[in-house]
Amino acid sequence: MPLVSMRQLLDEAAKGGYGVGAFNVNDMEQIQAIMGAAKETNSPVIIQASRGARAFAQDRYLFHLILAAAELNPEIPIAMHQDHGNSFETCKSAIELGYTSVMMDGSLKDDGKTPSTFEENVEVTRKVVEFAHPLGVTVEGEIGVLGGVEDGHGAGGTGLEHITDPDQAVEFAERTGVDALAIAIGTSHGAYKFTKKPDGSVLKMDVLIAIHKRLPNTHLVMHGSSSVPKDLQDVINEYGGKLKETWGVPVEEIQLGIRNGVRKVNADTDNRLAMTGAIRKVLWTQPEKFDPRDYMKPAREAMQKVVAQRMTQFGQAGHAGDYAPIPISEIAKGYADGSLTTQPLVAAK
Ligand code: 13P
Predict the structure, then answer these.
(1) Which of 86, 266, 336, 338 has the smallest number of Cβ neighbours within 10 A?
(2) What percent of the chain clears pLDDT 70, i.e. is strictly above it?
(3) Taking residues 27-51, what's their average pLDDT?
(4) Packed helices 59-72 and 28-41: angle between N→C axes, nearest 10 degrees
């Protein structure tokens, strides 16, 4: 199957009432793990690359690895997404490479660290939408600022410092025309999100629900949504790791989000934990091993297991065959004639 528009994928998720995991990749094994899980569960997928990942793998390697995934899995809809673009230029370069979706994270200035003003965010996000939509490319924006730092991108601090204001979310969605909106509800990137199982004082699901009520046609995105399960932490620590006790976003809270307009769920940390635990186990228990395949194979399997579990929990499992891909040129026409601005897209069977 050719790569699909993330907008089509999210519109279908809205129609089916499920969420779609957006999993980060840096290398071949992670892409294979996601595709293994997608095949196993018959799921549509979003494969996303941060700026750090694009630099680590080199743009063309990563792009062609994701294309290989599409070529080898013609039955699976795949959206290729730029995670946390820090500037118009970053998004433009992803679109020119062939990404079918970009995130313009204008919540931070282009240093990727300093919170921007509302007007700066609207301006740069709008500029990306004006460039992307005529090419049929989906745009995700962010209003409010997440906590933590991922791949050098982030304001740091806790997720509670810049919770999204629902009024601003409405104005932002209207003025930018984004297809999907990431909101800040207390989550942060990385393993250290919460010091105990989060309740409503730190994980603001009430804010998410309020935003969904005001913007029922906007696909919401939950970033920083790894659950950081204890069993994955334990494997790392059992085999010489030094993770401090920590909590992520419970799956049941993500499922509550999905019942309230969340269509894209970003997860990276859980996969990193799964792979690292598997690698540590091999190297710790079998110190004589030196062939990378001896530890990369179990690492890939461990990631596939956690991704397949999330696909089932988010509800995307079983939906890969629901629709045929709409060519990106047709999606562009939908933006041009206005049918894609607020109306969910209904795909041909
Ligand atoms: P986690 O660190 O919770 O996996 O979040 C990843 C993310 O939001 C990528 O944009």
Answers:
(1) 338
(2) 95
(3) 98
(4) 20
Cα atoms in the 13 Å half-sphere on the side-chain side of 76 = 28
pLDDT given at position 157:
72
Atom of ligand 1 nearest to the CA of 190: 2
User: From ligand 1's centre to the CA of 307, what distance in Å?
Assistant: 13
Q: Is the whole model's pTM more than 0.70, yes or no?
A: yes
Q: Is 228 left (phi over 0), alpha (psi -120 to 50) or beta?
A: left
Rounded distance, CA 121 to CA 204, Å?
A: 22
| Structure token pair of residue 115 | 């919170």
For 59-115, how does the pLDDT look when each residue is reduced to its tens digit (9 = 90+)?
999 999 999 999 999 999 999 999 999 999 999 999 999 999 999 999 999 988 888
Set 11, 83, 151, 268: catalytic member? 83
Q: Which residues contact 130 (CB under 8 A, 6 or more apart)?
A: none
Residue 83: active-site member: yes
Give the binding-site residues of ligand 1, using a 6 Å CB cut-off.
24, 83-84, 150, 189-190, 223-226, 266-269
Q: What are the DSSP calls for 206-249, one per residue?
A: HHHHHHHHH-TTSEEEE-S-----HHHHHHHHHTT--PPP-B--
